Amino acid sequence: MMLFLLTSPVLGDSLNLETAKLIINSQHDMAMYGITVVVGLFALLLILYWLLQIPLANRKIDNAIKNEITGKASEEFKKYTQELDKKLEDNSKKMDEKMEALDDYMFLLHSAETSRLHANNAELRKLWDTAALWWSRAVKSYAETHIQEKLLRVAVNGLMGNLQKCEKLNEKGKEEIKECLPDIPDILSTEKRSIEKKLDKLPNEAPKKS
Hints:
single chain; 82% helix; mainly alpha; 6 helices
């Protein structure tokens, strides 16, 4: 178009070089304006795209954090439940052991008390050898409880006292009484030696009266 204006026979004479420059500059400005508009629109699109990507990125970040937190929480909860199950199992085993020990203790204590009552009954009937046997059984049971030291001493003294009154005791009875001697503690060593001496001297049968 610029070439047409410069070579036109009608306008060629009226347009000078300055007018051509103005036209060229005007066209240059329009081109720059067009380029600026295109660049601006492209930049605007980039900004809009970036703005749209921010919520999406935030959601992805939130989801990642939630998944990580949920995963850690799930792992911690699993670990906690496993530890809790183990503690409960250990406590259950300990409780079973304590209950079993308590049952054994109550059985031994009942056995010892039963033997003591039989020994007292035999004493009332002046059956010294029978009383001695029952006291030896009481000694064994009280000793196995490991905590009835006072009653163990009572049983040892009862055994020793009844043996002193015995005139006879068969071999079976002697062997049964000897079985309880290892259960007599060292603190009662004097009583233990007295029982041993009496057993050695005690005849199997009562001496015949002349």
